[in-house]
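Write out this protein's structure.
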Amino acid sequence: GTLLVKTLVGNILIQINCRDDRVATTLIAACSQSGNESRLLAITLIGGLGISSGVGALREIFLNERNSGDMRREAANALEKLDWKPSNAAETITFAILSGHVEQAAKLGPMALEPIVNHLGSVKEWANVSKQVKSFVASFTSPEAVPHLVNLLGNSDHAYRFGDSICESLAGIHPEGINALIEIVRDTGRTYYPRYRAINILAKNKEKLAVDALIATANENIETLPGVAAAALGEIGDVRAVEALIAIATKAAQGGTKSIPSQTSEMKPSDHMVKGSYNLAWHANKGLVGILGKSSSQLSVDQLRLVARLTPVVLVWQMPSGCAP
């Protein structure tokens, strides 16, 4: 019959609390049919009628990630009505999430990180999701959470939407999380956003351990991250980056090397913008300005003069008296 007829019949069966074996067999068989609406109705009726023989079919549905979220959630709700208990930690986490008890899943430790963020990333209430993810990942501060947080950044959608929150959580775990962020920056096989988010957080925290990795990234022959890394070195303000930034600025100015916009609110357009992209030389100069502003007393007169020759308009006014080029 039609879905409407099936629904009406199902409601009647629940009202009379029908436990006929033929009904149970029919509903369990319907769980493996192709029509999603019929399957959802069968799942609901198995839970509503308390058909314990349907546990196996329901469990298979809720554990199968190829099924829709709605179907898996309905199967979890039906299993809950049947007082079914998971047999291991992974099942417990999945069951808690799909039953709407995310907080219970979180209590099971870092192994719940990925399933919960995967779940939150699939829901439709976009306005609240980012705040939920930020609050959730921030609650995991142990070294055991680091590999799970890193795995989340391997998902390009999570890295784009939640990358800042994930990287902030990593930055709060010393030294394991910091080391993981630095390795992400070094990993040229990764896509843009995980590395971009990691660079921003390391710069925000002025993490000097990241200087070597950022210098290497600023020297990469790609049109994406070098400028972001160069500007990040200025945020950190470590004088070890001066020579590298001078070389990058000089080479970029001569060759017209470009990088895409940093996409950070601190970066502002200038005359150096070329066809919608920031010139790498400008990024490197900005990095030098940052270092000069934070650590000018640690630079030699020769370094100050060389820097000033690269960006005289921006830098001369910041140089100590007697060091004019």
